[in-house]
Amino acid sequence: MATRKIVLCGAGFLGSVGSPRRIYRGMTVDIIVLGKHMASAIESSTTGAPRHVQISSRNPDKLLQALQKDGVSGRISAVPVDITKPGTLRPAFEGADAIISMVGLLNGTPAEFENIQCKGAENVALAARDVGAQLIHISAIGADPKSDITYAKTKGIGEQLVRDVCPDATIIRPSIVFGPEDQFFNRFARLSQYLPVLPVYNGGTALFQPVYASDIGRVVEAMTRGDPDIENEIRGKILEAGGPQVHSLRQLMHYTLKYVPRWRPVVSLPLSFGLLQARVMEKLPESIFTITTDQIKQMQLDNVVNPNPGPDHLPFHDFLWKHCHQIPTSMHKKVAGYVQ
Ligand SMILES: NC(=O)c1ccc[n+]([C@@H]2O[C@H](COP(=O)([O-])OP(=O)(O)OC[C@H]3O[C@@H](n4cnc5c(N)ncnc54)[C@H](OP(=O)(O)O)[C@@H]3O)[C@@H](O)[C@H]2O)c1
Fold this sequence. Notes:
This protein is α/β, with parallel strands linked by helices. About 35% of the residues lie in helices and about 15% in strands. The protein has a seven-stranded parallel β-sheet, with helices on both faces. Helix 4 (about 110-130) packs parallel to helix 5 (about 150-165) and helix 7 packs across helix 12. NADP nicotinamide-adenine-dinucleotide phosphate binds near residues 12 and 57.
């Protein structure tokens, strides 16, 4: 069977490996195996066609070295690209069977968001179309071109631009993603080291459905096997990726503290105070305490899988079970293993 070339464009947390990791707890070092994120899930799969994984971002060598140190074998390479420079994409994608488009931003100016999540996503789609590769685009739950939150708005416009170029593209929209090095549980665990309380705004009642990075990795592995039935099933579809549990933001704060473990009160502050705080923080250099107006607004909105999906949606849990024989992984089983 011919080896397929799979490009992880924007391999960072979600595209990287999750096993093994060294976790330092005071004097002891735990070496834990937490599962496989996308690169290793695809590279090590014995189902379907053998695959060569190319990780592509502006500086992919660091990630390649980390993957190799973690034991990922030779069927992996690194080729630099910058999605804001279309000329770098076409040569890097040459010969690819599938491109996973993953570059996204958490903080930035509206122009930076537009450059990456709209124009950049479109550039990747154009290059994927040029080389005739299958495209899997990673967006986010809440993506909405009409949103007044820049992150959600540019994710929504990005999806439209990708669809215009590649109508057959598959879109995955995750809720919060957890796994070693995630930017949610790790961040709040670290904040609890410095702050006497963990703040939520306006009660912290918005709902979230944390999904395990390795479950997304498994799904992408199945999608890139080169199985014509799976390719037909996912063509032009949207998968909203959520985990097995739905929790409010306030509950997630309590769970984070329980996993660490550390005792801190979770305190609800008025939304107006949060927005004022964000306006000040946005003007200061970025740090662990940085919170933006957009993020405060985002935290007021439910971030869960649509309970009434349209005909263009494919249920993530069903796909995970059908093609990977896996039930969605609970955060309760994993997060305590890596937060500190
Ligand atoms: N993590 C979550 O909880 C979550 C939730 C919902 C949706 N998502 C979406 O999932 C995707 C992946 O998220 P992630 O957490 O894995 O992000 P991440 O860790 O920030 O990784 C993104 C990678 O993109 C690369 N990159 C940045 N600018 C680039 C450019 N101009 N050209 C090429 N590469 C560039 C960066 O590597 P270099 O520095 O080497 O370029 C970075 O490592 C994003 O689209 C994100 O919006 C994530």
